[in-house]
Design goal:
Elements lengths: L74 H19 L1 H4 L3 H25 L7 H16 L4 H6 L3 E7 L5 E4 L4 E3 L7 H13 L16 E6 L7 E6 L7 E6 L7 H6 L5 H12 L3 E6 L5 H10 L7 E5 L35 E5 L13 H9 L5 E7 L4 H9 L4 E7 L6 H9 L8 H7 L5 E7 L5 E14 L5 E9 L5 E3 L6 H9 L14 H7 L15
Parallel strand pairs: 7-11, 7-12, 8-9, 8-10, 10-11
Antiparallel strand pairs: 1-2, 1-6, 2-3, 4-5, 5-6, 12-13, 13-14, 14-15
Helix pairs in contact: 1-3, 1-4, 3-4, 10-11, 12-13
Amino acid sequence: MSPPGSFTGHDGDSPTSPLAPPLGPGETGGITRAVPLASRAPSLSAPTAAPTAAPTAAPTAAPTAALPFGARVGFTDAVVEVQQRVAARLAADGARYANLPSDGKRLRTQSLVYEELESWVGHRAQVGLSILSDSDEDQLVAGVLAALGGLGPLEPLLLRTDVEDIFFNSIYPTMLRLANGEMVPGAPLASSDAQLAQLLQSMAASPLDDSAGREFSVSRPLLQLRMKSVGLLGARMSAAMDVTPHPAGTIRVHRHVETSLPQLRDMGMIDEALRVFLTAVVLAGGKVMVSGPTGVGKTVLLRGLCRAIPLDKMIVTVEDDRELGLHVVPARGPEGQVLHEPDGSIRLLRPPSLVRTYEARPANSEGRGRITMGDLNRQALRDSPDVLIVGETRGEDVVWFLDAASNGIANVMGTIHSVSARGVFDRLVQMVRMANPPLPGDFALMASTALDIIVHVKRDRFHNRFVSEVVQVVTGQLGVHGYPITEQLFAARPDGRAVPVGHKPTPELADRLTEVGFDLSWLNPGMDTWDEQGQQGQHGQHGQQHGKDRP
C-alpha cells in the first residue's frame, strides 16, 4: 500500500501548475501600450506642434476629480469619438486590412488608436482643456480598443484577472466582486439607458455568443448570454430591460477553468486529507453531490473533482450554461507551458472524442428550438458514459440526475444549492415535485441513496471558501424517519473547515477506496493539515508531501 502522502491521482498535478495559461512575452494581463503618447514619445501621426506645457500650479479641483477618468461624465463620448475615427480609417484600408493576419490586424488597430488619440489629446490642449494623466490615457485607449472589439467598455473590466462578478445598472458605476470577496466600483458602461440597451442588443445579436443571435427587446426583455471571447471558457451574462426600472445585469466570469484538487488545496479550499480522500473517491467511481449556497465555489470544486478522472474515461457533461470547460483545458508540459499540436493548434488535456459537453438551449424568438436539461440527460444516458456530470441541478432535471445515479453509471457528479449536506435530501424532494407530472418525495429519498458522498462548501465572513462537511450516504437504506442513512466522515471544526472525525465508510465503499490505493488512516482524527497549510502559506509553498510522515 502506498503511504498516504504519495497518493497524487492520475495526472500528477503539482501545486505549481498555474490556474490559467501563462501570459506571453511582454504581456501583463492589462492594456500594454504599443506606442507612447503625447510628450512621452514622438507621435505616430504626422508631426504637429507640441502642446503647451501644463502650468505647474495645481488646477482647481472639479467635483468629479476624485473619480477615475473612466467614471466621469464625458468619458463615453470621448471613446465614441476616437472609436469612430479609427473605424473610418480601418474601413478606408479595405482589402489591405482584411488580408492581414490576426496579429497584424491587432497591431494596425492599436497603431491607429494611438495616432487618433494623439490628435485628440493635442486638440484638447489647443482649446485650453486639461491634459489627461497617463492613467487617464490608458483608460481611454482601453475603452476605444474595447469598443472596436465589440465588448465596448466591458472589455477593460473583463481583462482584469481578479474580477469574478460584474454588476451593472443604467448609467451608474459598475460594481466588481473580486476573487477575495471585496466589492469595488468600476467604470459605468454607458451614459444613457438607450446606449446601454444598444450595447446589450449588439452583444446579443453578435457572434460573441456560441448560439445564434438572440433577441433582446421590449418583447423579449430577459437575456442569457455566454461571452465566449473571455478567457478559456468565457463569461456568463444575465441582463434585463423593461421589467426593471433601467437596463441592468450581472456578468459571471469563469476564472479557474484548469483547477485541480492539488490547486484547490493550495488555494485553501481543501486540505491534504480532503485532497487524498476526494481523489480516491473519484478514482473509485464514486457518485458525488457538491452542495452549498450561491457563490461559494461549488463549480470550482466540481472542476477539481473532474480533473482527477483518468484521461481514458468517456465523460459527458450536461449543463444549463456550459461552465465546467472540460473540453477546453489545454495539455501542459513539465514547466507549465501550453503544448501545441504539429499544426500549431493547442493540444487538449483530454481526447476530444472522450469529452461530450451538452448545454441546454432556450427557445428562439418564435418559441421554437428549446432543449431542456431533461432532454440532454436522456441523450447523455445513450452515450455510454463512464462519467456523467450534471453542472447544476435546479429543478425537474434532478429526476434524470437521480436516474443516472441509480442505473449503474460508474461516476455521477453534480452540484445543488443547499444550506447543509443533509439538507440536500429536502432540496431533492422539493425539486422532484416540480417535475411534470410531480413525483412523490419518497422517490427522491430512495433514489438519493445511490449517492456515495455529499461534499458541502461554504464561505466565511472573511470571504474564504472551503469544504465544511463530508457525509457518506448508505446505499439503499432509509432511516426511521424516511430519510437516507448518513455517516459523517468530515465535520466542521470551530472555524468551519472540515476535519476527519474518525468514522469509517461502509465496508463496500472502504473496499473500493483501498483498491485504488487509499489509506483509511487519513480518516482518523488529527489527520487534517489546515494549520500546517496556514503556517506555510496557501499558495503552493508546502508542496504535495503533506502526510508522508503520517502513520
